[in-house]
Write a structure and sequence with these properties.
11 helices; 16 strands; 334 residues; eight-stranded mixed beta sheet; alpha/beta; 2 domains
Length: 334
Amino acid sequence: MNNAPDATNTIRLRNYQERAVNALFDYFHKHRGHPLVGMPTGSGKSLVIGDFIRRALSAYPQTRILALTHVKELVDQNAAALLKLWTTAPVGICSAGLRRFETQFPIVFAGVGSVMNRADELGHRDLVLIDEAHMVSPKETTQYQRLILALTAVNPNVKVVGFSATLFRMGQGMLTDGGLFTDVAFDLTSREEFNALLDDGWLAPLTPKQTATQIDTDPVKITLGEFNQKQLQKATDREAITSAAVEELCREGHDRKRWLIFAAGIDHSDHVAETLCAAGVDAVSLHTGPTSAPRDETINAFRAGELRAIVNNGILTTGFDCAEIDLIGMLRPT
């Protein structure tokens, strides 16, 4: 089978995206470790992943690649980015959430939970690419580590590349401190590089607003740097706080078209969405509980401009790509 990329690519990468891809090839020409690529949210990691795959198979047509992440939206998004760059790519998807289990293709985009026990089906893999690499724990009993160990048993020379907007993990420090990853091949996450992306117009500047509504988090316990989830929702999910917060959102966002709001829990998400609807804002609540709106239909409607606001808890937290979002409501203290 000829895996050479076709000539239908009409997308031109931004200069820093090309630099990121080049940096990975330079790294592997000189080193034998497992490198990281740090790129801020919104800078286009999906296209960097896609172009690295395209160029890898162009140079080495027999290469077999597994691209991993932890949520189905990113699996779908990253596979779509590759197909924009290479329309005839030999790509499969393995994701329970997407109801696809294609493990035999030279390129497989997968959810880690869906392939953790499918190493035998995946067979020989030369490269494992991990999006949101800060999710990879250094503990050997975790999903990523167990899968990589199984793939290494098939190919001891398999290389792992991590992509993330943050090269730091709570409880570990830098991702290169005693974990899977050994080096940083490319990094745009410093303040200077981030500001350069803003200055060049590649990232949209955020305009933070100091809220009039304050939440008392003093009674909420903190464990390993995070608020206790149950206690946080109890402190946050109060009618007076929700009403005041929604009033502020409506005042500040009266001219905004796409609102993404983060809530402190499932009940809180439902209550915020209900209060927004009562205020005349078309909003739904998205979470993992039984009262959630349908996930795929809601996201599609939001992207299409048919829905103004999504209130979510634990769903659209990493890697959600919707450039039209022009208001973010943080109703969850961190």
